[in-house]
């Protein structure tokens, strides 16, 4: 390894020791058990470290080109050993994820078959996570604030959760007093996971439905149903791109969000309902202009900045738009 490379790793170790103290103090004060520790703070050490009660997850965020370079795996192993040393943890407590460029349904593919499921607390709720077997753990930590907002906005409302993943937003809605929730996702694995999350938190009623379906196809079919339900609050956090074989057509959030949002607005939303739309596509641009929302009697409020938790230094980790009735109309 070059002298420059060794210098970057020394900087990384020093930064990690400082972050450890800061984050542990903050997490204890805020009663948070799952949080981000490190996020590419040093450009030459391109990785992310998340902490959970019983383990850590280290993601390699290097470009695919750098991942193919000779010596890259050894360097990543050295980064992992620094993490173990700083936090005084064993090899079994640190899970390594080499994040390749995703294609199609890669986000659903298992990385291993260890079956390491556990329950973690967030707020007064519990969620099932898995640190080893999938690319993601089952709980998106960057939406911690958004989930709490949704809980507070859900009382006595019917909530539709599209691209629902493991159903965390549905659990929060139910805990906030939603009269009903419906979670729709393409993956049967995640639908089963969402059911476990709901039932574990005491929401076993038929009022909390889970639908395993291609979301675009489900919406198309529901649109033709004259007796379809309308919802007071619709939340969606779709993938940036998917060409899964389970889907009838490709999904691209930039090119397809406009039609989807306007269809939800006109066909699925109650008169005073709201749509909360999130995306982690870093170059995303909302294709529905403010004037068009206004003509339809709505406001589109960008709440991205205030929705990003204190442990996330990446201000582009997600964007969040809240589409709500314009009180001036």
TrEMBL record:
Transmembrane regions: none
GO molecular function, one term: methyltransferase activity
Record keywords, A-Z: Methyltransferase, S-adenosyl-L-methionine, Transferase
Domain S-adenosylmethionine-dependent methyltransferase, first and last residues per copy: 109-245
GO biological process: methylation
InterPro entries on file: SAM-dep_methyl-trfase, SAM-dependent_MTases_sf
Name by which UniProt lists this protein: Methyltransferase domain protein
The organism of origin for this protein: Leptospira vanthielii serovar Holland str. Waz Holland = ATCC 700522
């Amino acid at each position: 390894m070059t002298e420059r490379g060794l210098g970057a790793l020394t900087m990384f170790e020093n930064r990690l020791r400082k972050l450890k103290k800061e984050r542990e103090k903050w997490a204890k004060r805020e009663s948070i058990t799952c949080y981000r520790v490190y996020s590419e703070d040093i450009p030459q050490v391109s990785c992310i470290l998340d902490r959970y009660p019983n383990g850590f997850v280290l993601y390699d965020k290097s470009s695919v080109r750098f991942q193919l370079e000779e010596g890259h795996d050894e360097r990543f192993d050295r980064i992992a050993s620094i993490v173990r040393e700083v936090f005084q943890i064993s090899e079994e407590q640190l899970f390594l994820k080499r994040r390749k460029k995703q294609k199609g349904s890669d986000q659903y593919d298992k990385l291993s078959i260890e079956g390491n499921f556990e329950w973690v607390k967030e707020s007064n709720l519990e969620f099932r996570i898995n640190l080893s077997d999938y690319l993601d753990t089952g709980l998106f930590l960057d939406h911690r604030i958004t989930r709490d907002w949704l809980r507070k906005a859900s009382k006595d409302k019917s909530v539709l959760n599209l691209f629902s993943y493991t159903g965390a937003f549905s659990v929060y809605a139910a805990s906030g007093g939603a009269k009903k929730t419906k979670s729709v996702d393409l993956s049967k694995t995640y639908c089963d996971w969402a059911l476990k999350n709901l039932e574990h938190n005491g929401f076993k009623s038929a009022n909390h439905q889970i639908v395993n379906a291609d979301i675009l196809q489900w919406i198309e079919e529901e649109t033709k149903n004259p007796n379809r339900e309308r919802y007071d609050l619709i939340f969606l956090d779709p993938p940036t791109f998917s060409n899964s074989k389970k889907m009838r057509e490709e999904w691209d959030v930039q090119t397809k969000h406009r039609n989807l949002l306007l269809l939800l607005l006109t066909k699925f939303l109650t008169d005073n309902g709201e749509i909360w739309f999130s995306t982690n596509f870093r170059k995303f641009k909302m294709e529905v202009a403010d004037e068009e929302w206004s003509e339809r009697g709505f406001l589109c409020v960008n709440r991205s900045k205030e929705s990003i938790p204190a442990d996330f230094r990446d201000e582009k980790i997600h964007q969040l738009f809240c589409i709500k009735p314009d009180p001036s109309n």
